[in-house]
Design goal:
about 350 residues, alpha/beta, Rossmann fold, Rna Polymerase Sigma Factor, Chain: A, eight-stranded mixed β-sheet, 11 helices, 14 strands, globular
């Protein structure tokens, strides 16, 4: 992991954040004319470690894979507001010498992308061959297209939306309320004491339900009990699905900060790729080629939201391809259906050439 430090970032709110650190990892080699760089953008709970053992997209990034490190220079940074190396609520506030907590300013997807642009400038890359990511990563891809269109040759938004629906905002709000209802949250000032682990675990459990489909949960768990010898224990995790959700929640709190969860989910809810413009105007003038990927069983980011992105791009005159993949894994499909994604992305990138 490497770190890029810069002095100041002016936020969309008008506030200034200073200083700022972005953690990032790179894979492959940047060529002589710096024309083979691809920016990979992570989802809510992701981090810099996208490739290699334990990487959240290790089946997609590497030699001979969709994002071939023998051809491309891959960059993945932890988002602003995160807790895996980049400046966020758990970072030290230079004014107080203590973690920011709720003194951290509100951030948006635009702010996250503007921080990434500073990293790309620092690396001396004038134009990215592509930007790609799923879920919140796809939102960042769309924001790059809108705010810095001159810096992209292509874009691959996956399993995402141009803006959250009321239902999507509602799920995020339930997670935030679970965290803030934890007695240990302490108005965000918990860094010198016990963290709001139960609240964060419940938020993750709720989120994880939305990442799967009814069919994938049926296939994985059914109504199976964990141990039939211990049935009817009062409110214990008797069903396998209960135990699984508790495991996911408990493991999440070991690697993620509750305040980061609050700030990042709010940034997702604020996001509007159209920036108040009509669909016909939102992507007008964008020269990059776009490929939108969606999954039929994804009910968190249903296919009609991807189709809205495609419609907006085509109405704006953007060369756009749309691929809808038949998968049973729900929103998690973008992390699971790597074979089909690899075929589509590899062929798409073959047709993206530097100016």
């Amino acid at each position: 992991m490497e770190y890029f430090n810069f002095e100041e970032l002016k936020l969309e709110s008008g506030e200034k954040l200073s200083p700022v650190v972005l953690a990032y990892e790179t894979y492959g080699k940047l060529n002589a004319d710096k024309s083979n760089a691809i920016l990979i953008l992570h989802a809510l709970s992701g981090d810099t470690h996208a490739a290699g053992p334990g990487g959240w997209w290790e089946k997609m990034i590497g030699a001979g894979k969709a994002f071939d490190t023998g051809k491309y220079f891959i960059i993945c940074s932890n988002v602003l507001g995160g807790c895996r190396g980049s400046t966020g609520p758990s970072s030290i506030n230079p004014k107080t010498g203590k973690p920011y907590g709720l003194d951290f300013p509100i951030i948006t997807i635009t702010d996250i992308v503007n921080a990434q642009k500073k990293l790309i400038d620092h690396l001396g890359i004038e134009k990215l061959l592509s930007a790609a990511g799923g879920s919140m990563g796809g939102m960042q891809v769309l924001e790059w297209l809108v705010t810095h269109p001159e810096r992209l040759l292509s874009a691959i938004p996956i399993a995402t939306a141009g803006r959250h629906s009321p239902q999507q905002i509602a799920f995020n709000e339930v997670g935030r309320q679970a965290i803030m209802a934890d007695v240990n949250w302490n108005e965000g000032d918990y860094y010198s004491g016990p963290a709001p682990e139960r609240g964060l675990a419940v938020a993750r459990m709720v989120g994880h339900i939305t990442y799967m489909s009814d069919r994938s949960m049926e296939d994985k768990f059914g109504r199976k009990f964990r141990d039939k010898k211990q049935l009817l224990k009062k409110f214990a995790a008797e069903f396998e699905v209960e135990g699984y959700l508790q495991y996911r929640g408990d493991s999440f709190v070991k690697r993620f900060d509750a305040n980061s969860y609050l700030y990042i989910t709010k940034a997702m809810d604020y996001f509007d790729a159209f920036h108040g413009k009509s669909i016909a105007e939102a992507f007008k003038g964008v020269k990059a080629k776009v490929m939108v990927l969606a999954f039929k069983s994804d009910w968190l980011y249903p296919t009609h939201q991807s189709q809205e992105i495609v419609k907006a791009c085509k109405m704006g005159g953007v060369k756009t391809a749309y691929c809808e993949i038949d998968s049973k894994y729900g929103h998690d499909s973008f992390l699971v259906e790597t074979e089909e994604e690899t075929h589509l992305i590899r062929n798409f990138l073959k047709n993206v050439k530097p100016d």
